[in-house]
Specification:
Two copies of one chain form a homodimer.
Chain A: H1 17-37, H2 44-53, H3 60-71, H4 78-101, E1 105-106, E2 109-110, H5 112-116, H6 118-139, H7 142-165, H8 173-198, H9 203-227, H10 233-236, H11 242-245, H12 251-259, H13 262-273, H14 281-291, H15 294-313, H16 320-334
Antiparallel strand pairs in A: 1-2
C-alpha cells in the first residue's frame, strides 16, 4: 500500500512553468498594482500586507484571471486590476483565517497575527477587501463586480459553514464538499470567470472558464487537505498535522471515520471533537488513514475534479493558454506525490 | 463649572422623530431587505447578524441615505438597497471592532464575540460586507459603488490608524480628528452622498450632502467619546470608562493631557500607555477632565462640526426633509446633555 502522500518522490507531471511564462509580463503589472495599492500613510498597512504578499505564495488565483483573459483573446487591461483584486481578496481571507484558526505560521513565516496581533490581521484584511472592491469598481464592469462580490459573500458563508461543522466527526462527504466549494472553489471560479467576461465572450465560454476554475479549486483544496497529513512543514509553509490539532474535519478524516471501526471512531471523537490529543495520536491518526486508504482516495477524488476542470475547457481550440491551463490541473493534483 | 456630560438633565433640543416619521415607509422596506439578506442556510449567520441588527441601534446611517434621497426628490427604489448596504457595512465594522477591542458588551447586550466567539464575529462581518457589495452591484450605479467602496477602504484604514495611535498620549487633536474622519465620518459621508447621486443631482448638491454627512459624523463621534466618560451603561449600551480601560486616546484625553501638569501627564501615561489602572483611577481621570473642562470642550468642538453640517445643507430650499436633517444634528450634539 505504501505512503500515498510522500514528498520524497519526484513530481509525476504537471507544472505551472508554462503558465508563469505566458503571464509574466502581465504579472509584473499586477505586482506593481499590488504594491501601489497596499501603500498607505498608515505604515502598519504596507507592513502587514507585504509580509503576507511577499512571502512567496504562487499567486495562482490572479494567474487564472490573466490566463483566462489570454485564452479568450482579451486585448484591454482591466484584467490587471481584477487579478490584483482577486489576490487581495485571497490575502484578506488568509489574514482573517489566521485569526479564526489561531494559526502560528503561514507560508513558512510567522502568521501576521503573531507579529502584529489579531487586531491588525482583522483590520488590514478589511482594508485589502476595500481596496479590492475599489479596483473592481475602477474597471467598471458590473458583470465582473457581480461575479466577484457574489464570491466574497459565498466565501465568507463557506468559512462560517466550516466553523459550524468544526469538530463534527459526523460530517458527510457532501457537506464537506459544500464547504470547500464555498470557501475555496468560489474564488478560483470567479478568478477564472472574469477573464472571458472582460473579453465579451459567449455565455458558454464564460461558464466553461467558471467550471474550470471551480473544479480546479476543489481539486486544489482536496490535495491541500491530504498534504496536511502527509507534507512537510517546509513545503507546505505550515506544520504537518495542523488540521488534526485544530480539530478540522477534512476529507481524509471523513473517509477514515466512516470506514472505521467503532474503536477508531472513538479515537476521532476524542481527538477531534474533544481535543484530547496525546503525543502519539498524530501517528495513530496517520496509521488509521493509511489502513483505510483515506489519503490515497482523497487524491483520487481530487483527480476526478481535475478531470472535470480539463473537460470544462475542452471546447476551446488548442492554444498555448489552453495547454498551460491543463498543465496547472496536473500540477495541482500531482503535488501530493 | 458642573458636570457637563450628565444624562440626568433633560435633552436640550433636537430629535430624530421627524426623520424617523419621514422615512418610516422606506425604512420598513430596508428592514425587510436586511432580514432577507441575512438569511442563510448556515444558521449561525442569521443568528449573529440578527443579534446585532435587532439590538436596537438607531439605524442613523441608513436613514441618512433615505433622507438625502428624499431631500433630492429621488423617485426610484435603489436607495433601499443602498441603505441596507450601509447598515451592513456598519454592522460588519461593529463585529470586527469588538474582536479588535476585546469588548464584552455592545448596545447593552453581550457582544456577539462573547456568545459565538471571535471567529464568528470576523466571518459573519465578512459575510455582511460581501452582501453589502452584492446589493450595491444590484443597484448598478458605478458612481455609488465608487463612493461606498472607497468608504470601506478608508474606514479600515482609519481603524488601523487608530490601532497604531493606540495608547499614545502624545496624539494631537489633528491626528485624532484624522482617525475619526476615517473610521466614523467616512460612512456618514458616503451614506449621505449616494442619495443625491441616485437622484442625478448636480456636483454641488452631491458635495453638499457629503459635507453634511461628514461633519455630522465627526460631531457624532466626538459626543460618543465624551459620553464614554459621562454616560450611563444603560443609555450607551456599553460601560462608562470602556475607552479608559482600553487605553483609547480620544479627544477628552488629548485635551486633558495637553492642558495638564506633568504629574497629570504621568497619570495618563501610567493608566493609558502602560495600562496600570487602579480602583480609583477612573474617578481620578474624570476629576482631571473636569478640572480642564475637557468634556465641555469636546462637546463645544462637536457643536462646531454640527454647525458645519447644517451650513452644508443651507443651499437646499426649505422642506420637511431639510428640517428633519437639521434636527438630527441637534439631536446628535445635545444627547450629551
Amino acid at each position: 500500500m505504501g505512503v500515498v502522500v510522500s514528498l520524497d518522490d519526484k513530481p509525476q507531471g504537471g507544472s505551472i512553468d508554462q503558465l508563469v511564462a505566458l503571464v509574466a509580463a502581465d504579472m509584473e503589472r499586477v505586482n506593481q498594482t499590488i504594491l501601489a495599492r497596499t501603500g498607505s500613510e498608515v505604515t502598519m498597512i504596507p507592513e502587514v500586507a507585504n509580509h503576507l504578499i511577499s512571502s512567496g505564495g504562487k499567486r495562482l488565483r490572479p494567474m487564472l484571471t490573466l490566463a483566462t483573459a489570454g485564452l479568450c483573446g482579451f486585448g484591454g487591461d482591466g484584467h490587471i486590476k481584477l487579478a490584483a483584486a482577486v489576490e487581495f481578496m485571497h490575502t484578506a481571507t488568509l489574514l482573517h483565517d489566521d485569526v479564526v484558526d489561531e494559526s502560528d505560521m503561514r507560508r513558512g513565516k510567522l502568521a501576521a497575527r503573531m507579529v502584529w496581533g489579531n487586531e491588525a490581521s482583522v483590520l488590514v484584511g478589511d482594508f485589502l477587501l476595500g481596496q479590492a472592491f475599489k479596483m473592481m469598481v475602477e474597471v467598471g464592469s458590473l458583470q465582473c463586480l457581480d461575479v466577484l462580490s457574489s464570491a466574497a459573500a459565498v466565501i465568507a458563508e463557506g468559512e462560517v459553514m466550516q466553523l459550524s461543522a468544526a469538530k463534527d466527526t459526523q460530517t458527510t462527504e457532501d457537506a464537506y464538499l459544500e464547504v470547500i466549494r464555498a470557501k475555496t472553489a468560489a474564488l478560483f471560479a470567479a478568478a477564472s470567470e472574469v477573464g472571458p467576461i472582460l473579453a465579451g465572450r459567449s455565455k458558454a465560454d464564460i461558464e466553461a472558464c467558471r467550471g474550470y476554475g471551480s473544479n480546479l479549486g476543489i481539486a486544489f483544496q482536496l490535495i491541500d487537505d491530504a498534504l496536511d497529513y502527509g507534507g512537510s512543514a517546509a513545503k507546505l509553509g505550515k506544520n504537518v498535522g495542523d488540521d488534526f490539532r485544530e480539530g478540522k474535519i477534512t476529507l481524509p478524516v471523513v473517509l477514515s471515520f466512516r470506514r472505521g471501526t467503532e474503536a477508531e471512531r472513538d479515537f476521532w471523537r476524542r481527538t477531534l471533537e474533544r481535543g484530547e490529543i496525546g503525543d502519539n495520536d498524530l501517528a495513530l491518526a496517520l496509521a488509521t488513514m493509511k489502513k483505510h486508504r483515506a489519503l490515497e482516495d482523497t487524491v483520487e477524488r481530487a483527480r476526478h475534479y481535475g478531470a472535470m476542470a480539463r473537460d470544462a475547457l475542452e471546447l476551446f481550440p488548442a492554444s498555448p493558454w489552453k495547454r498551460a491551463l491543463f498543465e496547472v490541473v496536473d500540477f495541482c493534483v500531482n503535488r501530493a506525490h
